Amino acid sequence: MTEQLSLALPAPPENDPDLLVPARMVNEWVYCPRLAYLEWVEGSWAASADTEEGKRIHARVDAGRGTLPPPEETDEAPPFEVRSIELSSERLGLVAKMDVIEGDDGILTPIDFKKGKRPHVEGGAYEPEKVQLCAQALVLEDNGYRVGDGFLWFSGSRERVSVAFDEDLRARTREAASGLRLAAAARRIPPPLDNSRKCAKCSLLPICLPDEVNLFRRGGPPRTPPPAADSAMPLYVQQPGARVGKKGDLLVITAEHEPDREVPIGEVSELVLSGPVSLSTPALHALVREEIPIAWMSSGFWFIAPPAAGGRAARMRARRNMRCAATPSAGCCSPATSSGRSCATSAPSCAGTGGRPKPSATMPPKR
Question: Which of 257, 279, 311, 318 has a C-alpha 20 to 30 A away from that of 332?
Answer without folding.
Answer: 311
